[in-house]
Amino acid sequence: DAGVIQSPRHEVTEMGQEVTLRCKPISGHDYLFWYRQTMMRGLELLIYFNNNVPIDDSGMPEDRFSAKMPNASFSTLKIQPSEPRDSAVYFCASSLTSSYNEQFFGPGTRLTVL
Amino acid sequence: DQQVKQNSPSLSVQEGRISILNCDYTNSMFDYFLWYKKYPAEGPTFLISISSIKDKNEDGRFTVFLNKSAKHLSLHIVPSQPGDSAVYFCAAKSSGDKLTFGTGTRLAVRP
Questions:
Q1: Mean per-residue pLDDT for A44-57?
Q2: Residue of A nearest to B46 (CA)
């Protein structure tokens, strides 16, 4: 298995632009998680899905952020409009169960908003 | 408000010696704690965990200690190896709640 796949690996955009981050979970995993890593706040869980349904989006910072999972093999995290403070590394993770011990993380997308 | 704190952003240790990474938390409702390891350009990987009913959990060279009265946990790596050089994140959760992570400690193990 190729593991969790994220694209793009790096994204540089200008303030105000729309950004879409993509994730392909490990086949057969029912749970998908989106995280954000910053120097100041460390890793933060933004949202997670179970069987393509959003379960907890309380970590989504504001309405500019939205996440979708149209099918079991694909998820997107969209920021519109983007702001410089959104600059961070965004990780996607998937797991068979809700257990945090068993999450597999992707390599992350480094987002820079100028 | 940072509920999980890793006050040492970096740590350097000689190969073969013990590495001790520390983590403090403020939420007394946390009952499960985890450590993750992260190499550059990779996602974090789960390392070891401990439930609040225990005060120690060991897995090979890695041991996590929990002091509930002090709201403190630590990760011990003995002996340290150059391959252990990575960023280590502490995380905590309460029942039914999501994980809260610390900001990470960068460990460098010198050959």
A1: 93
A2: A101
What DSSP state is assigned to residue A25?
A: P
A49: which strand partners?
Answer: A32, A54
* Chain A residues inside the 8 Å CB shell of B87: none
Phi first, then psi, for residue B83 (nearest 5°) are -70, -10
- Band (pLDDT 50/70/90 cuts) for residue B31 is very high
> What is the percent of chain B where pLDDT is above 90?
88
> Does A101 contact B at CB distance below 8 Å?
yes
Distance between CA atoms of residues A110 and A88, nearest Å: 6
Nearest CA in chain A to B43: A107
Report chain B's mean pLDDT, rounded to a whole number.
Answer: 94
